[in-house]
Amino acid sequence: MKKAFYSGILVSLASILLNFTFKILSANLIDKASLTLYFTAIDIFTLTLLVLVGFRSSMVVSFSQIKNATMIINIFRGVVVLVALAVWAFVIPFLKHKLGIQIHYWYMVATVVSLSMALYFSNIIAMYRLYNVINAVTLIEPIAILFWFLLAHYMFSLQGVQPLFIATIMSSLGVSVFIYSVSKKYYSAVSLEAPVFDADAIKFVKNSVISTIEFGSGIVLLYMVVFLMLRYFSVEDLGDFQVVTKPIYTYMLMLFVFPIFRFVLPELSKLISEKKFDEIVSLKKWILRYAFIVSSVFLVVALLLSETMVEQLFPPEYAQASLMIKHLAFFFIFLILNAFQIAFIKASGAFLAALLIRLFGIVVLVGTFYMIFIFYSQSVISVIIALVSSHISMFGVSYLLERRIFMRLKQEKEVYSL
Questions:
Q1: Predicted TM-score of the model (pTM)
Q2: Where are the domains of the chain?
């Protein structure tokens, strides 16, 4: 798992660079209006398919606990079909008639189907803890979208949004075919019969819904910062966050925090189900070292080089963004540790507790911002401090809950042994 974890960071970095290359190429080859509509459509499709992403944690944990792949996959397959049909019925007409995206109707349908298929197979390989396949997909997807975009644009001379949608459809289908071909032996025998909704199935569905809301609340937390800046500060201040700070913050999350949910969560669910608590302690010590090293390097780079890097990469009007980056760097260690603790809480089956912690973080962010804004300072940095306070508060609560759950599980093991 550790080897796959570190490999995942390198693969994620390569994926980020490839995706950034795709954006640069498309910006130079496609007109701005078409490109804007394309990325807006993909964002809307992605947000409406979030429910499928939210199922991943629940699938991983349920499979570790009950080993009933047939029930889990069949329920998830049904959800995928229902979500895809809902997007087809409600989202595509909105994109066609309200946003006015000029592309054939069936391109839109193919986009929904291909994205849904890719998410379906991605969740399955996560459930089976196929770490090497996960890393391969992370790298293959941006390579495929670049290949198909260049092929459609140069070989077939397609213009506007058409080569962009073709690239998305073909890359998603390619990922689906790749995952199926290399991992079909794990689930080739899964029945197509309708699942029986017993207690385990109902619990799985309940945890999946909660996990989806919890995943969405993490996005709400970040966009609450955007809303507060938009409401109380200037467009220039918002630009510092949107153009410079948020992308850097997001890339740091993708590189160093998301792998915890991708690789460590499945491992924790397996260790908890097997009651290997010494290995859990060892894994946590490893995460502590990892968090200290990553956050220390980020802090040093932010303090010494952030101003120079912002000056070199962005126009002068974005200079103040370096101050936001420095504030976030001081507390990045809490994001990593909180991610591990949330992963442990979810791996133990306490999905509702993980959701409540996320909601608590949103409340702390808003409350802290207004306290600072009203009684102390009306600087834009108050929003960043509120975001930091939110993560520290979630870290504190999740730490206490993690310890309580860990001690309870150990006591249950001792009682079971007797």
A1: 0.82
A2: 2-196, 221-417
